[in-house]
C-alpha cells in the first residue's frame, strides 16, 4: 500500500486518534492479502485498555449470516427443505394463518413483525436481560403479519430467532454449539463464539459506549440472553475468514454460498436488497455483499466486492460514525473510485432559517421519529437519549449536532435532518386535541399491552405501565395521525380505525388497540 492511500484511510478514523475514547478495529484485504490493519481508541475507558487486533466485539446483526449458514448446512445434510412451512418445526409457536417458509424468513420477506417493538409493547426494556423465552412469548400472540409473505421486504429479527430455534430442534444442540462445530472451527475462527447469555465472560471483549456528540461517552450496557438475529462475538481477522468464502469458497459448499448471495424476488417480480443473511447493492457498477450490526453502542460492518476480491471489516464500540458509510468511503479509496455523492436536498432552493426550539415529528410514510430542540441561554441543543448536544451553525446554513455526522436545517414549516447518506423531513409536533380519541384504557391483545389515554393540559397523555407517561402529538399537516414516544426504541404512530386505534411502529404494522 502506498503512503498516500494509508494516510487517506487513517483520516477516516481521525476522531479516535486523540485522547481516551472508544474506537474501531479496521481490516482491509484484497486478493487474499492484508492491505490495511489498524486499531484506534480504547476497548475499556475505565481501565484505559486499547483496542487491538485481538479485541472482541459484539457484532449484532452481522450474526445473521451465521444463523442462515447453519440452516443451509442442515439443508445440505438433507435434514430440512428451505420451502418447508415453518409449522413443521415450530408449529407450537405459530398463531397466524398464513403459510410461511424457512427461505422467506432468511430472506426477510416473511412479513413477521419484529421482536424488539413487540417486546417493548409488553413492557420489556432494551437493556433488560431479554431471553429467547421472552421472544417466544410475544411470537405466540401474533395472529397477523405485517404483510403476506413474499409480497414485500421488511427487516425482521423475529425470523432469525425462529431460524435458530429450527436448528436447535433438528439437531438437539444449541445454536452456539452447532455454529462452533460446523462453522467457526472449520473456518479457523478461533476467537469467535455466539454468546448465549449476558452472564458469560468473553475474554478481550470491548465495552459499549454511546457517543451523543457532546464530548462525553456513556456506558450503554448490553444484556441480551438470546441469539439468532444477534450475539456473535468476534474480531475482524476471524470475520475475514467468512468473507473469504464469499470470494472463493473452499470450506463451505459453493452452492450454499450462492444461495446466501441470491437476492429475494418478491411476488410482483421485483428484486429485494436482502439475500440470505446478507444485503446487496451496487457501488459504481460493482456488486457489494454486506451486513451491518447495531446493538447498544456496538457498531460494525462487513463488506465485500467479489469482482475486486476486496474485503472490508470495521468493528466499533461506539456510535460516533456510520460504519456502512466508512466502509463505502474505504472501498472508494482502495479502488480509486469517485467520492460518494452527497444526499440530495429534498427541497429545491430552501429558505433556511436560524435554529429554533420545538418538537418535530416525521409524517408518514417515514417511520415514526421525534426530534426535540431546546434553547438554553441563547444556545440551542438537541435532546438525545443520554443528554443534550449543542447545535453549531455551519457554512451551508445548517446546524451540526455536536461532533456527529448529522445536521439540522430549519425551514419555516419543517426541519430537515441530514444523516451521512439521507435526509429525513420532520414537521412541528402539535399536542393532539382532547377529542382526537376517546379517553380511557386500550388493550392490544396480541402483545397484551395496555395504554391509558387521558386529558392533560388541553391535549392527551398516554401512559404505559412500564415506560411511564408521554404526550400524544400529531405532525403539522397530518392531523389524522398522532404519535407517542417512550424513547428512541419505542415510538409509534396512532390512527383511529373503525374498531379502535391502529398502531404502527418501525417494523411492526397494523396492530389493533381496542378500548376496554
Automatic annotation (TrEMBL):
Q: Which organism is it from?
A: Candidatus Lachnoclostridium stercoripullorum
Record-given protein name: Beta-lactamase family protein
Q: Which Pfam families match?
A: Beta-lactamase (PF00144)
Highest taxon of the lineage? Bacteria
Per UniProt, residues of the Beta-lactamase-related domain are 18-333
Signal peptide range equals none
